[in-house]
Design goal:
single chain, Aminopeptidase, eight-stranded mixed beta sheet, 5 helices, 35% strand
Length: 178
């Protein structure tokens, strides 16, 4: 378990799946990951995700209540990159748990870069702000890359290098420095 500033992160377990499904329907979260709607199919999806190299699926709690989930997948052992999957009830308040998770990933594995991508839509703007606050930089935009509701949308790509994470947090909060 990881803890900082009233947030705790623990391993995501099967009994947490109903919360994950509920969270997936909240705000722009449904646009961040293609999660099956049925409980059993979601459990299988998450079990398969957890089988990937260096995968870490965590439930985020605040005040003993679940407020989000963070995972990673599609890790490349050649480039040492991993894709981040995060959903929160309120991404505007999730900088510390995302940074704590990111620090733990960089601390635990020899990763060089973490990245995420999501459609550029009003509903996902809080996630753009969240990733920036945690030290991620927007690396580019893939034009008309994702279909949402029958329309094509641009997709923002955010990434964070290990050294940039350390520099970012060394200047903001020494507790998160690598």
């Amino acid at each position: 378990m990881l803890e900082l500033d009233g947030f705790s992160l623990r391993h995501l377990t099967t009994p947490d799946i109903p919360f994950v499904l509920q969270l997936h329907q909240h705000g722009g979260n449904r646009l961040l990951v293609d999660l099956p709607e049925e409980t059993q199919a979601s459990a299988v999806f998450l079990q398969e995700l957890e089988k990937q190299p260096w995968a870490m699926l965590m439930l985020v709690e605040s005040g003993g209540q679940p407020v989000g989930v963070i995972a990673n997948g599609l890790t490349s052992l050649v480039s040492l990159n991993t894709y981040v999957l995060a959903m929160f009830k309120d991404p505007r308040t999730a900088t510390i748990p995302l940074a704590l998770y990111t620090r733990h990933m960089f601390w635990t594995f020899p990763l060089n870069r973490m990245y995420v991508q999501f459609p550029v839509i009003d509903e996902t703007q809080p996630y753009a702000d969240l990733y920036r606050a945690a030290g991620f930089e927007q690396e580019g935009v893939m034009k008309k890359h994702q279909a949402v509701g029958g329309r094509r949308y641009d997709v923002a790509v955010f990434g964070l290098l290990r050294q940039d994470f350390d520099d970012h947090w060394a200047a903001r909060d020494q507790r998160l420095k690598l």
